Amino acid sequence: MHIDSLDWRTSSFSPDNGNSCVEVAFLPDGGTALRDTKNRALPAHRYPADAWASFLAGVRTGEFTAR
Description:
Elements: E1 9-10, E2 22-26, E3 32-36, E4 45-47, H1 49-60
Antiparallel strand pairs: 1-2, 2-3, 3-4
């Protein structure tokens, strides 16, 4: 599967009509891909399912919130 054929979703927190944020797509193997909306030609970052789940758990618990 080509990366451009994935169902990319723009962050709901994206300003400027989604042109200055990140997009996420779920991979057929259960992993997740991220790319920059400002330059979609750059390679996407790919994460296995367990790494993505750990990241989301950290977001939900405030691990990345500035203190």
